[in-house]
Request: fold
Amino acid sequence: MSENGEEFDFSKVDYSAVDTGVGTDGYKDSDEVTPDPEVNDELVKRLSLFREKAQPKTDVVYYPNGSDDISPKVAFPDSRIIFVEDDPDYIDTLVLSGVELHEESPESYIPDTRVDILVMNNTTLDPDKFTDYLHDTGYIVCNNYFDTADALKNNPSFELQAVVRTVGEKYEYDIEALGDYFKEVETDDEFKSAARDSKTVSFGIAQDTVESGEDVLAKYKKLIAGQGAGDNYESQIGNMPTEEIDFSLKAKLPKKKGTSDDLFVFKKKASSPKE
Reply:
């Protein structure tokens, strides 16, 4: 049964749990200026909805390579949150925010305990290198901007249980037809109605690229595959600006459902061979 569109009371999210260590103007008591840490409101809402729906164990949450973002501290106010960051541009901000920070590479850091939830947001880290740190039946929640969800989908130790996405102004905890989040659109109608992000091409741009109002998807796929260009390449891309042509021919097609910004909820299987 889908839980799409079910309202979540985001007024329960306590942003006061964050002690940034700096004033609203970015100043401490001294004259030294340190930027405030980031709190990604959208990520907080997605994580909060995941917590509400999945009811996971939340004693220990691990957040590697999150830059200066401390959103998990807001979404899981009663949890131990392990932050791991080695970029000096973010160290001072994280230290002053009062989080538990380990100043080293996420690839070399080994948690002192198994974790309940691993948050991977906009990271290029390989999720398969971190799965052993999870408790049996623990969760990895991630977006797919750098193909993190794609990697976990192919990991037999994990099962995709839900996707937290936005539809209009609502946040949805979607549990139906989850395979469609990994399948490209197959018809012009799907192409027209598909959600898109900064990495995917819109139907309108594809239509302008192939200069046709019919069979746009088929013609566009043929063009980007290099099968329909030939000597007529210039006429096929029309008079579009060079930068638009470059984007149009390199961008990915949208998926049947969702975007790479959605939050994918993977649960570690109890019978995981990695245990």
In short: Residues 188-250 form one domain. DSSP finds nine helices and eight strands in the chain. The chain has two domains: 10-182+259-268, 188-250. The beta strands are 60-64, 80-84, 100-102, 115-120, 134-142, 158-167, 170-174, 263-268.
